[in-house]
Write a structure and sequence with these properties.
Layout (H helix, E strand, L loop, with lengths): L6 H15 L9 H17 L4 H5 L16
Length: 72
């Protein structure tokens, strides 16, 4: 399908995927619940042509540095 949501929808989708990924046995889910949520994550990543890296990257401020170059 490879749909491309707008930026607000993409942020919402990333939040949903992060929430689904947090549903683990260690966090109190049953094995069945954890497996269903993992399958849903895989489905969403495939549908929207995303990777886990895309989901994990958060907006980080960029630094701008200026350098003075002296020619001798």
């Amino acid at each position: 399908m490879n749909e491309h949501p707008n930026l607000a929808a993409l942020d919402k989708l990333k939040t949903r995927i992060q929430g689904l990924r947090a549903k683990t046995i260690d966090n109190g889910c049953t094995e069945g619940e954890a497996l269903l949520d993992a399958a849903k994550v895989a489905e969403l990543l495939d549908r929207y042509d995303l990777s886990l890296t895309d989901v994990e990257i958060r907006d980080a401020p960029c630094e701008r540095r200026e350098y003075e170059i002296r020619m001798t």
